[in-house]
Structure formats: C-alpha cells, structure tokens
Amino acid sequence: MPADEEFELKGLSQTTFPAHVSSGLLAPSPTPGLVATVANGNNLEIRRDQGELVSSNTERGRAVQALCWKADGQFLAAGWDDGTVRLLSVENTKVVHRLNVAQRHADNAEPAQIVHIAWVRNLARERRRGRGRGPKAHITSEMKALGSEIGGSLDAKNDGHIVDLPHALTFFEIDASLPKISPLPVSGGTGDDMFAFSTATALESMFPPLKLKDSRVVDVMVVGTKDGHVHLSIYDSFFIGSFYVPIAVRLGGVEPRVNVDGTHEVVLHASHPKVSTHCLIMGPTDDGVGATTLYVVLMDLRFISDSPFDLSLLASKTTMLQKLLRYLKQAQIHILNEWQATRELPSRFLNFIQQDLQKMDCRPNNIVQALYHTVLTGHVHAPVKDWLVESIGDRGHKRWEKAVIPSLESLCNLIHENTLPALERITLILSRLSGIARFHEQDDHIGFTSTDITRLVNIVAALHFVCNKILLLVIEELDLFRVFSSWLRITIDRVSTSNVSDEIMEKEALLDTSKVLQYIEGYLVSSPLALYFEKLPKEIWEEDRASIQDWSKVLDQVDQELKQEEAGKPFKKALPQLGFLVDLLTERTGGVLKNIAEAERRSVRFGAAAKFELQHGGGNRETFKLFDGRMRQNPRLVIVPFGAGTPSACLEKVFPGNLAEFVPRQMKVQEANDYHGQVPHRVCLLGKDEVSYKVFTLIPEREELVEHAASSSHGEMT
User: Fold this and answer.
1) Domain Anaphase-promoting complex subunit 4 long spans what residues (predicted)?
2) d(CA 95, CA 98)
3) For 384-430, how does the pLDDT look when each residue is reduced to its tens digit (9 = 90+)?
4) Are 73 and 31 in contact (CB under 8 A)?
5) Percent share of the chain, pLDDT over 70
6) Which pairs from 555-561 meet CB under 8 Å and 24+ separation?
7) DSSP code at position 91
8) Can you list the alpha helix ranges (DSSP code H) found in 62-121?
9) Which of 275, 353, 603, 672 suits 407 as a labelling partner, its CA being 20 to 30 A distant?
C-alpha cells in the first residue's frame, strides 16, 4: 500500500487513572478489558479499561520495575526491586509463584535491577509419526490397505488422524478420574504459598489440564537484569538458567571479534512462535540519553526446536510436579499445626495436676495412674477432684473438646482430601516421566534416567505408607477421645455435687470403659502421633538423612524403623516423620529437575552481535514520540540494509479526536487472539499526562492490514 495511505482506528474505551502511571509501567492484558499499571512506585493495580479497580498488590518498601502478561492473560508477571518476579493470578489476584532471578554480587549487596520481562509462546517441534520409511510407515500403509478392503478411503486428509493417534495418547490425561484436590485452609500456612492454594479458583488456575490443542505450546519467559543477564524459564515456573548475554561483534571476517564489556542490558525482546531463535536488543545500562549504539543478539533455544521428545509434555509435567510439591508442603504444615493444636491446651491442663500429684508422698504420682484408678474404682483423689472442679469445670471441658475434636477432624481431612490426592497425582507424573526416561534411555541429553524416577517413586510410596499410618491413628484417637470426653463430663458432674442423679449413673453405665482406659493409657499424656510430628533437633534430621544408603529403598527403611520403635528398640526418629519425608522428596525432586534444566541449558546458544549506530545528528529526541517493535508472522529471515540517513517507510495512523487534547506518550499494541473468544487487534495509548488512557481497534474493513503483524514483541521509546 502507498506509504501515505491513511486508515482509521475505532475507539473502544477511554479512562483517566486516579494516579500517575510510574515510569511508563503500563501493561494491557491480551484479553480485552484489563490493564495493569503501577502507581507510586509500589502499588500494582489491575484495572478494567474503564478505570474500575479489579485488584491491587503492594509490597512495603519495594518498587515494581517491569510488567508483562502471559500470552493467554491468565497470569501477570511483575518484577520487583528485591530481584524477584511475582506471578499473579487474574482469577484470585494472589501471588502464585515467586521467581528469584537477580543475582547478588555480594552478601549484603542489592540484587541487580530487573529491566525487562518478555513472556512469549513458542511452538515445539512437531514430531512426524508414521511417515517415511521404517515400521511406522509400514503400519500406515497397512491401515490404508485395510481401509480399502472395507470400502473406505484413507486419503491425505484422513491420514492425519491416524498419524496423530500416538500423539493424542501421549497427552491423554487421566487426572479427571482422580478425586479433586481440595483447597487448603486460609489460616495456618506459612511462607509465600500460604494463600496460593486457599480457594477452588486458585487451584484451577494453578493446576490447569494440558489440552491437546496446546500440546506444542511452550511458554517462555525472558527476564533481563541490569547486569547484562537474562533469566530463562518455561511453563510459568520451570527455571532453565541465567545467562550472561555476550556481545561479540564481528569485524568482517569469521573469526575476528570485538568483545564489549558488561555495560549493556536488554531493552527489547522479539520472537516468533514458529522460530526458536529469539532476538535481544541490548542497550547501555544508563538511562539511554545520548546513547548512540545498540546491539542485536540472537538467542537460540534449541531445546524447543531440536527436542527428541515431547517438550510440552515434559515441561508441563515437571512444572505441575513443582506446584504439587509446594501444595504438599503447605498441607504438611497445616497438618503439623492441627496436631500441635490438639496437644497445646490439654498439655496446659495436665501440667497443673501433674505438679500437684508429684508433691504427694503416696501414689498416684501422675495423672495417668490417678484417672485409671478413678475409672476402675469410681474413687477420685482429692487433688484430682479439685483439678476437675476448679481448673477444668464446665468451661474448661468445652474448651478441651473444641481444641481436640475439630483439630483431629481437620487433620483427618487434610490427610484424606489434600495429602493423599496430591501424592496420587505426583505418582502419575512420575510414571509419565519414567516412561519418557525409558523411551530415551540411550539419550544422555534428557537430563534424567528411569533410576532417578524410581527413587522418587519409592519416597512417594514411603509418604503413602506414613500417611495411611497417621490416618488410622487419627481416626482411632478421635474415636477414643469422644468416649473419654463423655466420661470426663460425667465425672466432673458427679464430683461437683453430693447427690448423683440417676441420669448421670445411667450415662456412666453406657460408656465403654475399655476405650476410656485405652485413651488414658495411650493418648492422654503422649499421643502415638508424636512419632510422626514431634519436633526434633536439626542434627538428628541430618544424621538420619546421611544414613540412607539406597535411595530406592526408603520405604523399606521407614518400615524397618517403625518396627524397631514398636519393639521398643532404638530407631532413627527422623525417618518416619511426615515433614522429613516431604522435605526429602522436595530435595531429591529438585535435584532431578535441576539436571533436566541443565540439559536444556546446554542447548541455549548466543550468536554474534549486530551493531547499530544511531546517528541523530544532534536532533531532539522528543521528535521520537512512539515506537513499537514487531516481528512478522511469516517465519522468514528478512535482511534489510540500513545506513544513517536512509529514508524509512511510514504507515500513517489517524487517531480519532483532537491531538491537542490527547498527546500519546506510550503505545502498546495487542495482537488479535482467540484465547477467550475472538479479540481484535488493539492499540493502547497512555497520554502525556500519564493518567489518560485510550484503547483503539481497527475498523473491520481494515483489519486485514495487520493480519501478518505479530505481538511477540512490544516496546516503546519516548
């Protein structure tokens, strides 16, 4: 089209933000109607295009440095000055993950500033099945022959369905047949994940099913820091590695190069979904004023284009495994808190009477003997009577019940509805990883082996074993405590009055005294659950961990230690503990995932830099109002010769309204997508006053002008 041809934009919405947008931190969502802004440096806000506040997030004493949306608009990545990128879920506006990306050059040094975040989609290599020569081609030809015999036809169009059958089976999910993972309680968690799994909506966003249509999609996050590094991760949180971007300029030959020192940072990123090579534009680390040189460095992610296996399957499953381990850790923390709640108040009550009984010259000198005596004979010793009437009484008994029964019920639910379903899903994922490892057993570049996965499966089996042991003990303790509590209530009423009513005597006669005695003897002072939850010195944990000789026999070792404990013999106290096994699984899984990431990291390549001299000729930088870097959808390498003073083509855009009233300062262009229905191309403008915001779209008859434009990269210069 002629360079001077005009086309119009149609206004979609406009609003005025209540506060100035800080440092140009504006990020329109790929889905329509949402925009993320930063006000006052640290107040991250998600608003609708009309200005309505959806959510806000503030970190005291910290400032936001970069923003970027995921391609489907489900998560927002915010880079903060503490060197972390926080991923916020749009569904529940909670931080679902934290990525530590910036390196500290000294213990007390501030982390490197995050200067750029790009979150783009790549398509993994499409593996061809059943074509060419060999057994697969033979199978395809046989099926075509079979179709001809039965009167059917397997032409090229229908052939794709047969060829893709193994692919469909590979991504077949059976998670839907498992019990759903339940949300964790809002209170009681600790750390960054205390609210990440607290609602059903949060769980749906954290554990989305992998759809067959997205089986080739690899979400890549590139985070640039001021020290010249890029942090690379895929599938939201699977860390590949941090890389220093080399800037080596060829001098005309093949070998001679000039290495530029580390004074440049990522200022812009561009990529294409079908090309594994990403483009990094490196600029000076200062504010850019007076800068005359930019470098273009190509970063090739060969693990996307040359992966020998289904990268999407591996990446999605390993990321899901990481999230399940975080969920499992939070569930374990909740379980520990509930168990501690069952012991805290009763221990205080029992300490009072224990001190009084120990002062007596004759037996009984502990509460277990005293209550055992009362159950068998009906006689209540004087200190015990005073304790029952004065220290406990009606109010104390109700507090005791409310402290124990709800906590034991919650503990049971946490095991049955949270921990065991999570372990089942972890087992499924490990089974998938084991299949990948066995299929590629001869390949040394996948990063893990079937033996590594077998060791993890054994630790999961040990967790299953311990959780079932705990569940049985909790059910038994809950049943026994209810009977003991009824007996305690009757005993308090009986010793509180001189005349025992027939109703009290009838209730006492109906009690199962064997269960009362069993609780007093086995659970009152010290619960058998302490074997799995009591706090141990760190040294014991380290010693018991070091004693594990064969990581594929952790289950056998745990079983052996429990048998030693039942026999009254010395045993390793840390091995049966739930927290120890969860940490052990997390640690060992982290080692396997690190090896996978290292294998992918080795396939990242950086090319020689291309140098661009910006010769402004002393012109005023204010003449550059808007700039949006884009890459064509057509996956071809186009080389355009450029020299200083070369005239450039200009596509003029006419914005509705009076430019005197609205002067754009920053522009973001969003490509049309169909993630949540058909969304047209949008042009989002922030006014010079940093509060005016307008969104435009192409009129329908002109949309074909940008059908080949990509939104893989967005940037602006002002």
Assistant:
1) 296-497
2) 8
3) 998 999 889 999 999 999 999 999 999 999 999 999 999 999 999 99
4) yes
5) 77
6) 555/458, 555/459, 555/461, 555/462, 555/465, 558/462, 558/465, 558/466, 559/465
7) T
8) none
9) 353
